[in-house]
Automatic annotation (TrEMBL):
Main subcellular localisation: mitochondrion
GO-annotated molecular function: cytochrome-c oxidase activity; oxidoreductase activity
Transmembrane segments: 14-33
Family statement: Belongs to the fungal cytochrome c oxidase subunit 7a family.
Domain of life assignment: Eukaryota
Biological or metabolic pathway of the protein: Energy metabolism; oxidative phosphorylation
Classification via CDD domains: CcO_VIIa_fungal
Naturally occurring in which organism (per UniProt): Crucibulum laeve
Key words, A-Z: Membrane, Mitochondrion, Mitochondrion inner membrane, Oxidoreductase, Transmembrane, Transmembrane helix
Name of the protein this chain belongs to: Cytochrome c oxidase subunit 9, mitochondrial
InterPro entries assigned to the protein according to its UniProt record, in alphabetical order: Cyt_c_oxidase_su7a_fun (IPR014368)
Subcellular location per the Swiss-Prot or TrEMBL entry: Mitochondrion inner membrane
Membrane topology, as annotated: Single-pass membrane protein
Functional description taken from the UniProt entry: Component of the cytochrome c oxidase, the last enzyme in the mitochondrial electron transport chain which drives oxidative phosphorylation.
Length: 61
């Protein structure tokens, strides 16, 4: 008893799979960038600005 070959499966679903993967990947990339990365970067920058101000105040005092 032979199993019938699966033909055309990749071709039929290729564009749907490609579109979904690119769309979801882009969406998750933007969610990470704007939801997590930029907030962490802002926290880091504010820390270094505060540190620099403290060093400048200590140097002037």
């Amino acid at each position: 008893m032979a199993i019938a070959p699966i033909t055309g499966m990749l071709r039929k679903r290729f564009w749907v799979d490609l579109t979904c993967s690119l769309g979801l990947g882009t969406s998750l990339g933007y969610a990470f960038w704007y939801g997590s990365h930029l907030k962490a970067l802002e926290r880091q920058e504010s820390f270094y600005v505060k540190l620099e101000r403290e060093r400048a105040a200590a140097a002037n005092a």
